[in-house]
Structure formats: structure tokens, C-alpha cells
Amino acid sequence: MDLFDPVLDFEGELNASLRYGALDAANDSTALDYAVDAPNATFAFGLNASSNETKWVENEYNLPLWRELIWSFVFGSMVLVATGGNLIVIWIVMANRRMRTVTNIFLVNLSVADTMVSTLNVVFNFTYMLNLHWQFGLVYCKISQFVSILSICASVFTLMAISFDRYVAIMYPLRPRMGWKGTILIVVWIWVSSIFISMPNMLFYTTAALPIKDGGERIVCYGAWPDGDQGESHLEYAHTVILMVLTYIVPLLCMGYTYARIGMTLWGSRTIGEQTPRQMESIRSKRKVVKMMIVVVTIFAVCWLPYHVYFILSNVMPEIAFWSYIQETYLAIYWLAMSNSMYNPMIYCWLNSRFRNGFKKVFSFFLHDLRYEWP
Fold it and tell me: Which of 89, 133, 159, 282 is deepest in the core (most CB within 10 A)?
């Protein structure tokens, strides 16, 4: 499951095109003919039978300029908000010693992953979606698809680490809290395991040049797996299913269980005797943190659900690639999944007073500079 699961694959069409160079249409009576109408994506292919009659099947993804501009604004705004918000979160925690708690260090790790996907992946994949031409080279084809999986794995594993840390802290309050060394070791494990899971994309993604009717060529970034090209490979399908289980189903089950138990403990239990003001403040503080993380996990589940549903449908019903408005439908699904990276800073600002004060300081600093430059 690369985060740009191309509607451009069109199952047979793209895979046929990737074999175009291996066939000699002049000498092979069963050669596949393939063409792409530039500058917009009109894919067509057919079988050149012995009668020299070619039947073309076309699938057109041609957005008017005004709709391209709207989508560019929507994606561009999301990237700016996600990048800016997450960088501010990182600055707030690292610049303030009191903010360097175990939970906040994990939040910094989450912000690093979200910043990576918004800056190193979304912009390039969105450009690819609009013109179906990969103009960033072979190396970045590999890097972009590698980062897409790396960032989502790091994000999900970090959310799981936070839920387990909160679970131990609240359910077993007498146990020693995790220290800096344990926190750093978990962060390192998160990135090492994410790199391992993402490595197939680095190894197997490549680029190919497709011929265009006017004599030019269009470059595609696709997965050339050992047992077949993207859309035909059983290894790719297995890798995608494993990713869906590891980055969506299992994490949601684990976090659902831990936060349900935590919620019953913090909101459902009744202590014997009167609580001291310090105990009541401690419970309120824990409730605020848990409430914030429950919102973060819920937003994550909502943002990524349509993407995983689309993946299931595209494998069960490949014909959906030919539905009307499927390109914009996929753009909306992709935007929703990627927009998850911009919501977390908003949630921290909304539900955590210290983060809120940090954001106020940053915005007041910039507003002060603007007033100074433009009196």
C-alpha cells in the first residue's frame, strides 16, 4: 500500500504499458499498442492482431484548469498548516524544559513523522496525480514512496507507544515511570521497525517511460515487484494487506482497549474517602491528557478509514478505476488521509493549555514583527 495507490494503474492498462518497450510491434503480430494523449491523461491500449486492427479502450482523467487550481489550493493549504503546526509543536516541547515529558517527547516524534509526509511526500504525489507524469527522477520516486510508508508507520507506532505509556501510568500508578533512556529506546525502535517495513518500496519502486502519440514520453513511478508489476504482484498484495493490519486494524484494536480501560478507571471508578486537592488535580490532569489522545486517535481512525475502504474495493472491484469522477474521488480520499497530519497540532492547542500558550507566543511573535515592518 503506497500512499499514492494510483488510480493511474488502471490494472491492465498501465501494466500493459510497462511492457511496451519489450515488444516489437513491427515484428510481433500480438504486440500491445499503447498510447497516452498529452498533456492530459488519456490512456488507451489494444491488441494488434494479425489483421492489423487495433481496438482501443480509453479512460480519460482530464480536469479543467479551474478544478486543478481548486485542488492545488486545498492541498497547498493543508501542507502549509500541517508543516507549520507540527514545527511549532516541536519547538514548543524542545524549547521548554518543563514540556519535555515522556508523552510530549512522543508527540514530538509524531510531529516529525507528520512533517515528513507533508513536505517529502504529499506535494510530489499530488503533482503526479494531476498530470500523471513523474518529473522528479528515479531516486525520488523511491524516496517518496519509502517516506509515505515510513511516516505512517512511525505515526501509528508512536500513537500506540503513547497509549501504552498512559495505560501503565494510570492503571499501575505505583510502578516506576519510564525514564529518558527508555523513551529514547522506544523512539529508536519505532523508526527502525518503520524503516524495515518501508524498505520494499525503496527496493522495488522504479520509473518507466511511456510513449505518447505526439512522439514524446510520459514517466510513471510504479512498483516493479519480483513476481510482477504493480497491480499484478501477489507480493505487493500481501505487503499491502500486512501494512493495513499493522498500521490500522491492530493499532486501533490496541488503542481502543487501552483507552477504554483508562476511561473506566478515570471516569468510572469511585475512591473511598475524601480526595485531597492534589489528588483531584492529578486526576483532572490525567483526564485532560487522555481526552486529548482519544481525540487524536479518533481523528486518525476517521481520516484513514476511507483510504483503506478504497483499497479493499479497488482489489475486489477493479472496474471502479473507470467510474466517473474517480480521479477527484481519490483526490478527496487521499487528501483526507494526508490531512490527518495537520489536525494533531490543532488538537493540542485546543485541549492543552501549555501548547495553547506556546502557539500564542509564536503567533504573537510573528504578529509583532509584522506590525513593526508594516506600521
Answer: 89
